[in-house]
Structure formats: C-alpha cells, structure tokens
Amino acid sequence: MAARTSILILGAGTQAKVVADLILALGTYDIAGFLEIGKDASRVGKNILGKPVLGAVGEVAAIAKKHNVTHAAVAIGDNRERARLIELARAAGLKLPPLVHPSAVICTGAQLGDGSVVAAHAMVGVEARLGEGAIINTSSSVDHDNVLGRCVHIAVGCHLAGTVTVGDYVTFGAGACAIPGVKVGNDVTVGAGAAVVSDLPNGCTALGVPAKPK
Question: Which of 129, 132, 197, 200 could form a disulfide with 114 if both were Cys (CB 3.0 to 4.6 A apart)?
Fold first, then answer.
C-alpha cells in the first residue's frame, strides 16, 4: 500500500475538528497535526481527535519541514483570517487541496478552488465555481452555475439556488438561502435564516425575510 500524503491543519478550534473528521473519512491523507492560530498556546501539546497540536501557525514552515509535510488545510471560519493563513501556507511551500467529504455531491463541471472545503452531505451543483478557501458547510447546497468568490463561508443548512453570484469574504449564516440569479457583493454577512431575494451591495449585513441590508 502506498504511503498516504501528510497534511497539516492550520487551526485548532471547532472548525479544525470538522476538517479533521472530513480528512479522516477520506482516508487519503495522514494528519501530521494541528497548528494553533491564536495567542493562547494552551492547546499546544494536546491532542484533537487523536492528533497532536504541534505549535503555532507562525512556525508552519519549520514544522512542515520537520514532519515532511507537503499539504495543508486551513480550518477557521473567519474569512479574512482564512485568506491570511492560505497565503502563509503557500509561502511555506505547502499545497492546499480542495477537501470533499465522501458523503458530499460534486456535480458535473463544478470547479473547486484551492483550499476549499465541502462538508458532509453538502452539494455543489453543475458547473458551479468555488473560489479558493470556500467553505460549504454541512448539508448546504450551492446549485448550478453559482459563482462564489474568495474565502466565502456558506454555513450549515444554507441553500443557494441556481446562477447566484457571491463576492469575496461573504458569510451566509446558518439556514440562510438565496433565490436564483441574485448577486451578493464583497464582505457581506447574510444573517442566519435570512432569505436573499434581491441583490446586496458590498459591505452590508442583511437580515430577515426578505433579507434587508443594514
């Protein structure tokens, strides 16, 4: 049997556990360990799902070299921080593969950006495109011909109908949805349970049914 590729998880919080569970379910990578993101180093030396927290993200290059790691997964919900850590991993020479849970559905012609994560029971529709660092969380769907920008987070139980366009650094809160064809600008937060039925401008927070920018 060929040796499995080693991968580091940048993050040691709850999203890191979700990503680790996905990787374990895939069975194609060996998790070398986790790297702590925040200033609190109390988790260093402890285990998460049986794998060690090896140090801080600032040490990623040295730790990757020490453990002969070639790949990384960035596991944090904050979109801007995820983008920063993607660049940190790249600077350390690490590859950032898309990660797809075995129970997820990736339809014909869909494109997944570097470092994207498609969680359990999620769906990415026909010819949809995910930018790098996208998170499509548990039981969410991004339907046909959607285009998602950089480091978008589609939280648990969201549903985006066809031909939706989403800018960079956007978050859809748990259970939110969008009707076909709407356009969502950059740096937008759509609140939990909101329904996007019209275009949303850059930088807004949209709440309610229908979702209204604040």
Answer: 132
